[in-house]
Amino acid sequence: MVIELAIVMAKILFAVIFIVLTIGGMLSWVERRQSAMLQNRIGPNRASILGFRMLGLFHPVADGIKSIFKEDTIPAGANRILHTLAPGLAMLPVLVSFAVIPFGDTLHIGNRAIKLVIADVNVGFLFILAFSGMGIYGIFLGGWSSNNKWGLLGSMRAMAQMISYEVTLGLSLIGVIMVFGSIRLTDIVYAQGGYFFSVIPQWGIFYQPLGFILYLVAAMAESKRAPFDLTEGESEIIGFFLEYSGLKFAMFFLGEFMEIVILSAIFVTFFFGGWQVPFITAQGLMIPFTQNIIALPHLLIVGIQVLGFLAKVVILCYCQILVRWTLPRFRYDQLMRLCWKNLLPLSLLNVAITAVVIYLVR
Amino acid sequence: MIRRQRYGWWERIYLLEVLRGLWITNSYFWKNIFNRWTKRSATVHYPEQTPFISPSLRGRHRLTTWPDGKPKCVACMCCSWACPAKCIHITPEPQKTGSAEKHPQEFVIDYLRCIWCGLCVEACPYDAIYMDSPIHSICSYQKDARLDLTALLDSDYQPGKIEPHRAQRTW
After folding, report:
1. Any CB–CB contact under 8 A between A54 and chain B?
2. What percent of chain B has pLDDT over 90?
3. Are the Cβ atoms of B29 and A40 closer than 8 angstroms?
4. Are A36 and A55 in contact (CB under 8 A)?
5. Are A125 and A183 in contact (CB under 8 A)?
6. Among the partner residues A41, A325, A327, nearest to B41 by beta-carbon distance
7. How close does chain A come to B139, measured CA to CA in Å?
8. How far is CA B100 from CA A62, A87, A314, B10, in A?
9. What residues have CB less than 8 Å from A35, skipping those under 6 apart?
10. How confident is the model at residue B24 (pLDDT cuts 50, 70, 90)?
């Protein structure tokens, strides 16, 4: 009992501290540095410890220390409880979503089988959608409780956008669910282990290219970043976190970066084969076009698979930041038109086509 | 009237053009990562590196001197009158020796008001004031922005001098 609990705690620590918080924290550096590289700039490189600058890697640390020691203002007439609660409510669903995402195969140590997923629930798909919907509460309460009409308007804008795109978000994943026939995420990852023509891995993106694009667009809109960042618009319109300062603002900000990580992880799980690394099977390295298998130790295989998952997540984070620094912002009517008149019909079409194809194939 | 250009079907799909844009930014990223020592970025790390300054830069004021070190200024107040920002404050003092009747006892330029127009240089009948110091003054505090006679005679004087950072690496 105690050992089971310790294993679960270790998994939570690994997933939350190592994957989400570390990558999320690093992303605040990556984003500034990557955008600088994209735009022929140099980027932040001044923060140093004893003269060591480490390519500006200390900037997230400096930002964290700064935001901890900044004054935390609560505006007059604000609802103090909700104002304090909102950043947590915005961050919590992001962290909780990671519970159902499998980040590795079953690990056998001794006679104990450890599934490398925090909670292997059989409704993982619904769990993720439910908690991404929960994210609206933090944003709306943040805007409403600060007793500021601009904050309220910003949160209304954010709500309208997120609720609109949630429809597409769910519908675009339905296709994957239909193909793999399960809403348990570990089953979905296992189902992506095969190969087309014994070379191309059977990942969701090859079954559902349209669903992938639809989910990509909807997920980016859901994470409220450019080109869909008119809910916050860092440089000019601010939005729902107008009245936040210090650590609470940092929590909203970090929550946004963690949301990138989570979305990448969901992407990887549904469309890029989760922890499946091509030609690495449970027994060892499989040589393409043959059935020969070079045996590898079990721990090494699981390590490669976890690293493969992390690598996929990091590459997708890179792509999301690349999109954020390439595309200009949508106008609000363009945003809504894109959602309701283009993405929603396409996602319905995708579901219909998938259903017909599955009916014909079977 | 400029007619708005109609987009073709290629642009209206939007996704393909998005991919083209992503390809461009992505290629810039990797070029900058791998060629980071070849200087693509125009950024100059200012206190550590000095940018190229053109000799014709209209820089900070400099008071010229005679060979014996005395300022050429005769405190005629022409520059003070010409200054549209009224930032030159001269306190003249009668002079017994020398060719001129007066010399400046105090000569203060308030750089928070100066608009760098150069009219003082044009107004001066004795070529006593130039704007050729290759310096954009940096001042940390408001009190440092008012330069007096000794500072203006020294073209290398920097009011709030920023110490160069210990690390000289730019990366």
Report:
1. no
2. 25
3. no
4. no
5. yes
6. A41
7. 20
8. 60, 73, 76, 79
9. A41, A43, A321, A325
10. very high
Q: What pLDDT digit, counting tens, does each position of A120-152 carry? A: 888 888 998 888 888 888 888 988 998 888 888
Q: Quick check: B39 and B170 in contact, CB under 8 A?
A: no
Cα A157 from Cα A136, distance rounded (Å): 11
Tokens of A221: 């809109």
Closest CA to A341 of A167, A129, A155, A136: A167
* Residue A1 burial class via C-beta count within 10 angstroms: exposed 0-12, middle 13-18, buried 19 and up: exposed
Please indicate whether, in this complex, the C-beta atoms of A45 and B171 are within 8 angstroms of each other. Answer: yes
Min Cα–Cα distance to chain B from A215, Å: 14
pLDDT digits over A249-302, tens only?
Answer: 898 888 888 888 998 999 899 999 888 888 887 777 877 777 777 878 888 888
Residue B160 has pLDDT above 90, yes or no: no
Which of A30, A315, A324, A327 to mutate against chain B (most B CBs within 10 Å)?
A327
- Determine how many CB atoms are found less than 10 A away from the CB of residue A303: 14
**Are A12 and A118 contacting, i.e. CB atoms less than 8 angstroms apart?**
yes
φ, ψ of residue A170 to 5 degrees: the values are -70, -45
Q: What is the DSSP string of B123-166?
A: H-TTS-EEEEES-----SSGGGGEE-HHHHH-TT--TTPPPPPS
| Host H or E run for residue A295 | strand A293-295
Q: Which residue's entry shows tokens 């910003």?
A: A154
Q: How many CB pairs under 8 A join A and B?
A: 48
pLDDT band at B36 (very low <50, low <70, confident <90, very high): low
Would you call A192 exposed, middle or buried from its count of C-beta atoms within 10 A (0-12, 13-18, 19+)? buried
Residues in contact with B119: Cβ distance below 8 Å, sequence separation at least 6, in sequence order: B79, B82, B83, B84
> Does residue B72 sit in helix, strand or coil?
coil
CA distance B118 to A241: 47
ipTM over 0.90: no
- For the question of whether the overall pTM of this predicted structure is more than 0.95, the answer is no
State both tokens at B152. 């203006």
Structure-token match 């089971």, residue found: A4
Estimate the crossing angle of helix A149-180 against helix A344-361, to 10 degrees. Answer: 10
A301, exposed or middle or buried, with CB in 10 Å at 0-12, 13-18, 19+?
buried
Q: What is the nearest CA distance from A81 to chain B, expressed in angstroms?
A: 42
The predicted pLDDT at position A42 comes to 82
